[in-house]
User: Fold this.
Amino acid sequence: MKPDMEGTSPRILVVLPAYQEERSIGTLVRSLRKRFPYDVLVVNDGSTDGTSDAAREAGAIVLDLPCNLGIGGAVQTAFLYARDHGCDAVVRIDGDGQHEIEDIPKVLEPILAGRADAVIGSRFLGETEYRGSIPRIFGIQHFRWLVNLFTGYRVTDPTSCFFAIDRRLIEFYSDHYPSDYPEVDAYILMHRLGARAIEVPVRMYDRTEGKSSITAFRAVYYMVKVTLSFLINRIRRIG
Amino acid sequence: MNRVTIFSICASAGFLLYILEMVRRRKLREEYSILWLFGSALILVLSVKQDWLVVLAHSVGIAYPPSFLFLVGILFILLILIHFSIAISKLHQMNKKMAQEIALMKEKAAGGTPGDPSSRP
Assistant:
């Protein structure tokens, strides 16, 4: 992307998928709106609590999905919105306050400077406070190995859901975006598009409210499913 | 005709008629009825022409002809189940697209939000 397009500043959309996050989403949206001049889009993935109203009151654009699509489907809805509204870059962070919003400029800068097509915030680069559980670390190690073997991207945090992408990836993901742990699968898609993906260090906190969408029991299922989907995407016809 | 022959003819003919009736009443779409119709028709034919069943079974090396009938039945069930998995995947995809479209349209219908990027100069 060129840093200066016809003299206008690039349109940037900060995307937060949210499911049952009424207690933390408002605060997060407000601090984002206060800190950055960007639009904030909350995709309410079929929550039955007050997530939608809380986000709207805090000044976010809200997309209400009529049923729970899961993380991939929800984030893809945001890409569709970004595509239709001519956004130049999308930053996606979690709606539960685990990510440090002060790191947003770090994931955006390489895209705005035209140095990368996708920038992924890594919990494991540089100094980190993040301590995952043993099964989680094992899963992350597995995906690291998988991504590296099949794409050549050297990643430290393959499941990071704090990232920024440029216009071309927004358009591509609007049509093709995986369902579970889409971030791992996305590496194959980016690899096949020849996208330049880089990692930058970001901070990550333990959850303040709500529960993680991934329980230990489902972790193994997801690992198998994502591995399969990753390998299939390697041989699938795309574009 | 022995009893088992009469039973299997009645069962498969009854099944065939049931499927046809469901299609006629539009409770079953044609595309989903094809496999069921073929399956029940084949079982019916093999029940009536049992010597065909013996020839077919022996030609693939099955000594006990009724086993061949089971094999045919199981293969049809497998085929139908795969067909269903594919149909469900298709519906899943369509359902996702519709949910996304609804969410985008609802936002648009609400007049967008002040922060809407497209509403800026």
